[in-house]
Inverse folding.
C-alpha cells in the first residue's frame, strides 16, 4: 500500500486500512516517511525514504524500497492481497505481479491536466505507468464510474476487470456546531450575509475562474453576497486581479480546523470543477449538511441528484450564477438539500460499507 | 374484506424546567420540582380538557355500540393523571375494563431505553408498565408497542423473550418492498402488526389540511377507503391527542370519530383487537429489520431522537448515567423520548411538526438537558462507592465541558465527559489538537474540572494523536471498571 499527501488520497488510504482492521483483516501499510515503523489502530506502517532527480526516479526508488520491506514482512506469513494506489508504486506492482494485486485509480494524468494530453516526457512516462499498472494488476478499481470509463478508454482496461469503489468520509470530522455569525464576523462579513465558499487548489481543473465570473452576476442580484476562496495555486494572482471589485476574500491555504469552521458557517459550497474524478469536497459539504452548487461533471455528476441533495450546473459562469442565486434566495430549500445530502452520505459513503465492497473486489481477484 | 384494527398512543412527558440552574441548596425531596417544569400540569389539564375527556367519553359511548380499539398509555401520563386529573383516569379505567378494548404494553417511561446497548433497563421498564396496567386496570398486556414504534430485530427478540404474543411497528416501505402492510408478519419469531402509514396519516396529519385534494375527509369516504383496501387487517394507529388537541374540535374531528363506527359497519368492515389479529391470522412472511425504524417523520427511523450530534451527545450521557442512578425514577424520567425530540434540527414539514410539539428551542432544550444530567450525576456521586472515579467520569454542564478551538475560535466540538473527549480526539483537526497541547489546555481541564491530575500528567508532553488516545483509553477503562 502507498499513500502520498496529495488531495484526499492519504486520508482515504488510511481510512481504508483502519476499516479493514476493524473488519478483522491484518493490514500492513507501505508508505514514505522519515520515522520508524509503527502500529496505529492495528495498522502496521512501514516507512521508506526514497530519493531521485525527478518525480519518476523518485517513485522508482520508493517502489524498490517498498518491495524490499514487503519481502521482509512476507515471510513466514504470506500476504493474501496487495493493494496499490495510483501510479507511484507501479514499479513495485511490476516486481510483485504474480501475486493477487489490486490497483486503485484516484485520478489519471490526463484528468489532472484538465482533460488534455501533454507532450512533455513526464506526462508520457506517468501515463505509461498508469497504462502498465492497469495491464498487469489482477483487478482495477476506480473511485467513480466516470473515472472507470476514463481508465477504460485511455488504457484499454477491460470492463469486467474494473470495479467502482467510491471514496468514503467520516462525517463527524466535518460537521461541527459553530455559530455561523461568529465565524463570518471573524472574516469581516456581516452575520446575515450569505456566504459562498470555494475550497480547492487554484488551478484550471478546479474552475475557480468560473466562480469569479459567476460572482459578478450574483452581485447584480444580491448586493450582500460574500465569497471566501480557500486554497493556493498558480492561478491566484490572475484570480485576484479579476476579482478586484468583487466581494471575494482570498484566504490562501487554511488549516483543517479553519476549514471546518468555514464549511459549517457557509451557506453554499461551490464546486465549479472542469474535471472531477470524485470530488471529496462534496462528501465533506454533505457531512456538514450544506447545500452544494456543483458542475455537472465526473463524480459530482454521478453522486448529486439535482434538486434532491444539491444543484448541478453547466461548466459556465452563467449557469453557475443561476444556481447560486437560486440557493441564496431560498435558504430553507438550501438547508433541506444539504440535509438530504447528509442522509445520502450516511447511506452510501461511510467507510464500513465501502470497505465491504472493496473486499468483494479482493475476492474477485482469486475467483 | 379487511378488518380494521384501531389503536391509540396516549402519552404526555414530564418536560424539563426551562429555567433550570443548578442549586446545591435544593433538597433531595424537592429535586423533582427543580428538574421538571410547572408547565406540565398546565399542559396536562389543557389536553385533558381538549382531548382526553371528550374523546374518551365519546369512545365509551361507541364501545357499547360495538366499536373496538386498543390503547397504549405511558406510565408517566398515568402518574400525571393521578396527580392532577383523577376523574379522567377513572374514564380511562372504565375504557380499559370494557370488553371491546385492549391495553397494549409500552415502556413505563415512554423511553428510548430500547436503543441502549444493554437491554436490561428496557426490560425493567416494560415490566414496570405491565405491573401498572395490572394494578390499575386488572389486565396484563399481551401485545407490545415500543416508544413511537421504534423497532428492530433486537427489540423483537427481547419482547418475544418477555412472553408477549405480538408487537406493533410501522409498515415502512423500504423494509416491506413490494409487500403490503395489511397482513400479519413475523420478525425473530414474534408476530408483527404493521401500521398502515397512509391510512393512519390520512387522519393523523391530513385530516384538517385544506390544501389536500381529499379535504374535507368524511367518515363515509374513509370507511370506503378501508372497505376497498385489500389484505387481512388495516392497522390504524394514532396519537390519541389527534382528537381535539392536534386537531381542535372545530375541525370536525370528533364528528368524524362519532360517525366512523356506523360507516364502517354499513360496509361490513369488522373491527378487531390486536390480540385477536394475532390469534386469528397466520403470518404471511418474515421481516428482517437490521436498522432501527419508527413511525416518526418521513425518514421513519430514529433521526427524530438521535439524528444530530446534540441528540447523540445527550443520548450517550443518559446511557452512561446508569452507573450514577442511585435514584432510578429521576434517571428514567430523563430517558423519555420527548426530551430528545425537542433537540431535533429538521427542515420542511417534519421540522414544523417538531416545533409544534416543543416548549422550547432545540439548543435551549439541549443545554437544559445537559445541565440537569450534570446536576443529577454530581449529586449522586456522594452516595457512590468509588467517588473519585465517578467524579472523573461524570457528565459535565455546558460551562464545564471542553470546547475544542483553534487560534481563530471555537471549532464546534464539545466534550461533556471523558468518554466523549476521547471520541472527539479521533475527529478534531490536527492543528486544533496541536494548539491545545501547546497551551496545555487538555491537562488543565483534566486537572481542574475532572480532577484527575494523574491522567493530566501522563498526557502532558504527548504530541501524537494515537498516543494521546491510547493513554486516555487505558485510563478510562480502568476508571469505568471501578464503577461496574
Amino acid at each position: 500500500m502507498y499513500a502520498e499527501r496529495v488531495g484526499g488520497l492519504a486520508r482515504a488510504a488510511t481510512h481504508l486500512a483502519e476499516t479493514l482492521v476493524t473488519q478483522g483483516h491484518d493490514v500492513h501499510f507501505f508508505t514514505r516517511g522519515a520515522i520508524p515503523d509503527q502500529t496505529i489502530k492495528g495498522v502496521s506502517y512501514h516507512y521508506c525514504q526514497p530519493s531521485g532527480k525527478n518525480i519518476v526516479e523518485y517513485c522508482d526508488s520508493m517502489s524498490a524500497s517498498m518491495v524490499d520491506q514487503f519481502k521482509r514482512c512476507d515471510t513466514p506469513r504470506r500476504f493474501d492481497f496487495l493493494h496499490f494506489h495510483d501510479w507511484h508504486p507501479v514499479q513495485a506492482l511490476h516486481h510483485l505481479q504474480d501475486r493477487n494485486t489490486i490497483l486503485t485509480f484516484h485520478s489519471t494524468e490526463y484528468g489532472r491536466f484538465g482533460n488534455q494530453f501533454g507532450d512533455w516526457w513526464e506526462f508520457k512516462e506517468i501515463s505509461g505507468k498508469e497504462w502498465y499498472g492497469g495491464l498487469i494488476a489482477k483487478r482495477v478499481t476506480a473511485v467513480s464510474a466516470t473515472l472507470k470509463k476514463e481508465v477504460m478508454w485511455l488504457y484499454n482496461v477491460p470492463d469486467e476487470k474494473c470495479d467502482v469503489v467510491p471514496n468514503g468520509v467520516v462525517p463527524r470530522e466535518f460537521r461541527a456546531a459553530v455559530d455561523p455569525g461568529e465565524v463570518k464576523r471573524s472574516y469581516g462579513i456581516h452575520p446575515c450575509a450569505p456566504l459562498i465558499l470555494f475550497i480547492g487548489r487554484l488551478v484550471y481543473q478546479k474552475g475557480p475562474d468560473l466562480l469569479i465570473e459567476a460572482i459578478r452576476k450574483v452581485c447584480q442580484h444580491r448586493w450582500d453576497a460574500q465569497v471566501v476562496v480557500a486554497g493556493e495555486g498558480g492561478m491566484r494572482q490572475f484570480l485576484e486581479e479579476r476579482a478586484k471589485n468583487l466581494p471575494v476574500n482570498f484566504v490562501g491555504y487554511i488549516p483543517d480546523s479553519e476549514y471546518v469552521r468555514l464549511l459549517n458557517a457557509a451557506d453554499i459550497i461551490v464546486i465549479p470543477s472542469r474535471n472531477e474524478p470524485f470530488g471529496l469536497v462534496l462528501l465533506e459539504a454533505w457531512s456538514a449538511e450544506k447545500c452544494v452548487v456543483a458542475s455537472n461533471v465526473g463524480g459530482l455528476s454521478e453522486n448529486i441528484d439535482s434538486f434532491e441533495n444539491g444543484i448541478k450546473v453547466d461548466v459556465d459562469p452563467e449557469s453557475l450564477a443561476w444556481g447560486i442565486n437560486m440557493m441564496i434566495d431560498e435558504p430553507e430549500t438550501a438547508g433541506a438539500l444539504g440535509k438530504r445530502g447528509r442522509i445520502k452520505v450516511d447511506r452510501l459513503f461511510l467507510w464500513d460499507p465501502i470497505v465491504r465492497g472493496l473486499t468483494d473486489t479482493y475476492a474477485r481477484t482469486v475467483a | 374484506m379487511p378488518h380494521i384494527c384501531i389503536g391509540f398512543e396516549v402519552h404526555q412527558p414530564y418536560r424539563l424546567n426551562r429555567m433550570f440552574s443548578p442549586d446545591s441548596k435544593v433538597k433531595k425531596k424537592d429535586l423533582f420540582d427543580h428538574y421538571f417544569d410547572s408547565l406540565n400540569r398546565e399542559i396536562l389539564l389543557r389536553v385533558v380538557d381538549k382531548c382526553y375527556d371528550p374523546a374518551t367519553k365519546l369512545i365509551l359511548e361507541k364501545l357499547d355500540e360495538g366499536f373496538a380499539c386498543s390503547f397504549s398509555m405511558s406510565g408517566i401520563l398515568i402518574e400525571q393523571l393521578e396527580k392532577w386529573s383523577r376523574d379522567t383516569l377513572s374514564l380511562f379505567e372504565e375504557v380499559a375494563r370494557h370488553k371491546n378494548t385492549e391495553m397494549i404494553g409500552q415502556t413505563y417511561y415512554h423511553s428510548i431505553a430500547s436503543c441502549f446497548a444493554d437491554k436490561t433497563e428496557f426490560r425493567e421498564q416494560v415490566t414496570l408498565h405491565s405491573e401498572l396496567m395490572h394494578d390499575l386496570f386488572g389486565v396484563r398486556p399481551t401485545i407490545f408497542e415500543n416508544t413511537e414504534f421504534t423497532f428492530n430485530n433486537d427489540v423483537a427478540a427481547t419482547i418475544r423473550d418477555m412472553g408477549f404474543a405480538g408487537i406493533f411497528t410501522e409498515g415502512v416501505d423500504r423494509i416491506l418492498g413490494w409487500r403490503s402492510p395489511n397482513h400479519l408478519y413475523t420478525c425473530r419469531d414474534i408476530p408483527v402488526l404493521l401500521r398502515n402509514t397512509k391510512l393512519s396519516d390520512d387522519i393523523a396529519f391530513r385530516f384538517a389540511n385544506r390544501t389536500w385534494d381529499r379535504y374535507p375527509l368524511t367518515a363515509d369516504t374513509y370507511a370506503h377507503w378501508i372497505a376497498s383496501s385489500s389484505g387481512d387487517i388495516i392497522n390504524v394507529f394514532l396519537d390519541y391527542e389527534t382528537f381535539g388537541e392536534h386537531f381542535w374540535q372545530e375541525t370536525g374531528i370528533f364528528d368524524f370519530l362519532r360517525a366512523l363506527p356506523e360507516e364502517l359497519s354499513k360496509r361490513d368492515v369488522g373491527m378487531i383487537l390486536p390480540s385477536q389479529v394475532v390469534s386469528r391470522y397466520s403470518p404471511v412472511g418474515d421481516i428482517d429489520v437490521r436498522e432501527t425504524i419508527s413511525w416518526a417523520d418521513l425518514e421513519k427511523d430514529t433521526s427524530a431522537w438521535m439524528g444530530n450530534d446534540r441528540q447523540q451527545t445527550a443520548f450517550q450521557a443518559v446511557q452512561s448515567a446508569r452507573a450514577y442512578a442511585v435514584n432510578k425514577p429521576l434517571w428514567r424520567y430523563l430517558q423519555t423520548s420527548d426530551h430528545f425530540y425537542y433537540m431535533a434540527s429538521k427542515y420542511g414539514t417534519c421540522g414544523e411538526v417538531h416545533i409544534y410539539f416543543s416548549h422550547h428551542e432545540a439548543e435551549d432544550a439541549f443545554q437544559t438537558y445537559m445541565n440537569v444530567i450534570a446536576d443529577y450525576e454530581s449529586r449522586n456521586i456522594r452516595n457512590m462507592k468509588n467517588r473519585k472515579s465517578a467524579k472523573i467520569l461524570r457528565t459535565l454542564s455546558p460551562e464545564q465541558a471542553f470546547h475544542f478551538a483553534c487560534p481563530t475560535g471555537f471549532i464546534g466540538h464539545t466534550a461533556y465527559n471523558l468518554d466523549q473527549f476521547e471520541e472527539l480526539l479521533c475527529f478534531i483537526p490536527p492543528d486544533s489538537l496541536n494548539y491545545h497541547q501547546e497551551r496545555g489546555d487538555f491537562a488543565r481541564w483534566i486537572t481542574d474540572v475532572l480532577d484527575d491530575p494523574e491522567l493530566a500528567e501522563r498526557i502532558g508532553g504527548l504530541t501524537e494523536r494515537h498516543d494521546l488516545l491510547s493513554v486516555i483509553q487505558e485510563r478510562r477503562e480502568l476508571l469505568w471498571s471501578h464503577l461496574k
